[in-house]
């Protein structure tokens, strides 16, 4: 895709490791299991798979399929599940939820925008304020520009908008003492309807592509995954055989083939990913072991910083300013450096400053 990127930095799995599955409910199916174990290392591996596919899609694209968009979708559904755990299952305080999101995203994001802008100016490359402000304030999924180095922030914009929307749903259902299932399903259906509507209105091309980046369409995977998360928490995860998650993943990837209409890819394909990530915590042991491989999990831990810093090198590679090996090496080096020098330290500092113990 023209200015594609990985979708987000989902909340790190260890932050939800305190989750205790609820007691079995009356009427729960006998073939179901409790929805979520305390900590699932395989989810870090899922994140690593997503960023790996994104990097392949950008730097070594395969003919016929946009693996960059596949990576985005995989991030979105993981994020939706993790947000649902925090807001609707663990029921963390809304202020705490926002503080954690801010500490996770904003420092690394600001550093990336500032340093990239300075680098462009230092190199004598054209850059304008109108190209900086939309990604800086998370609305460049509605205001597109030719600044490829910031093009990937569209997916992070969708994430931020979804944080706000789901937190408002959480506030409402807590006040009304109602389960969020109906609201989440209605939101997912509304997103799917918008996807189908836009495909009917706009012919294939830049305008349709631009509308598929809007939050009202792109948030479909986030909201649907949140719905599955809450549903399985209340009713248990159905027992599945060892091939269900791979089949869903494979089917979702196939539905992202170039010739598949966007509405089918974005509705059916992303739904397969959303179901797969919510089944992964109870997947067969060999699949859990595969996703829990240390290199894949480590790649997942670096994923947000890699997501940020791969884009300028992707832009340079597109313009033939850097050879592929050098561009990929530069993206990896700056991404990993950002994780250890900016993202991690800033998150730990802010979380410590905002911790209840310190406030007391």
Description:
Helix 3 runs antiparallel to helix 5, helix 3 runs parallel beside helix 14 and helix 9 runs parallel beside helix 11. The protein is globular, with a radius of gyration of 20 Å. The protein is built from 16 helices and 2 strands. It is mostly helical and 360 residues long. It has a two-stranded antiparallel ribbon with strand order 1-2. This is Acyltransferase. It comes from Massilia violaceinigra. One of its GO terms (biological process) is polysaccharide biosynthetic process. GO terms for molecular function: acyltransferase activity, transferring groups other than amino-acyl groups.
- Strand segment tally: 2
Supply the number of helical segments: 16
SS-based class: mainly alpha
- Major sheet attributes: 2 strands, antiparallel
| Binned strand content | under 5%
Q: Can you tell me the number of structural domains? A: 1
State Rg: 20 Å
If strands are numbered along the chain, what order do they take across the biggest sheet? 1-2
Shape: globular
Average pLDDT level: 88
- Helical fraction: 55-70%
Give the low-confidence spans.
Answer: 1-35
Head-to-tail CA distance between termini: 49 Å
Question: Topology as H/E string?
Answer: EHHHHHHHHHEHHHHHHH
Protein name: Acyltransferase
GO biological process, one term: polysaccharide biosynthetic process
Keywords: Acyltransferase, Membrane, Transferase, Transmembrane, Transmembrane helix
GO molecular function: acyltransferase activity, transferring groups other than amino-acyl groups
């Amino acid at each position: 895709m023209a200015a594609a990127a990985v979708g987000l930095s989902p909340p790190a799995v260890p932050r939800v490791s305190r989750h205790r599955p609820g007691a079995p409910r009356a009427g729960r199916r006998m073939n179901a299991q409790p929805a979520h174990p305390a900590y699932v290392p395989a989810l870090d591996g899922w994140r690593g798979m997503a960023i790996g596919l994104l990097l392949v899609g950008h730097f070594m694209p395969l003919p016929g399929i946009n693996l960059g968009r596949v990576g985005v979708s995989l991030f979105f559904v993981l994020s939706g599940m993790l947000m649902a755990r925090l807001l609707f299952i663990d029921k963390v305080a809304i202020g705490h939820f926002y503080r954690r999101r801010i500490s996770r995203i904003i420092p690394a994001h600001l550093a990336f925008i500032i340093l990239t802008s300075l680098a462009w100016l230092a190199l004598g490359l054209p850059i304008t304020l109108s190209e900086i402000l939309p990604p800086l304030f998370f609305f460049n999924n509605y205001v597109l520009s030719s600044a490829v180095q910031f093009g990937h922030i569209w997916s992070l914009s969708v994430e931020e908008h979804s944080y706000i929307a789901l937190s408002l749903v959480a506030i409402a259902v807590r006040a009304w003492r109602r389960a969020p299932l109906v609201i989440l399903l209605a939101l997912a259906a509304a997103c799917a309807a918008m996807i189908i509507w836009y495909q009917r209105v706009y012919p294939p091309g830049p305008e349709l592509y631009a509308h598929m980046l809007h939050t009202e369409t792109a948030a479909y995977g986030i909201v649907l995954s949140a719905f599955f998360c809450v549903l399985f928490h209340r009713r248990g995860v159905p027992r599945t055989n060892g091939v269900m998650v791979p089949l869903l993943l494979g089917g979702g990837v196939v539905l992202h083939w170039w010739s598949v209409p966007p509405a089918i890819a974005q509705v059916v394909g992303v739904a397969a990913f959303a179901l797969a990530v919510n089944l992964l915590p109870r997947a067969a042991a060999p699949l859990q072991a595969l996703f829990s491989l240390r290199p894949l999990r480590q790649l997942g831990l670096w994923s947000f910083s890699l997501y940020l810093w791969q884009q300028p090198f992707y832009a340079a590679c597109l313009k033939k300013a850097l050879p592929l090996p050098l561009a990929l090496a530069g993206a990896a080096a700056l991404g990993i450096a950002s994780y250890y020098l900016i993202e991690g330290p800033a998150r730990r500092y802010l979380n410590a400053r905002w911790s209840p113990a310190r406030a007391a």
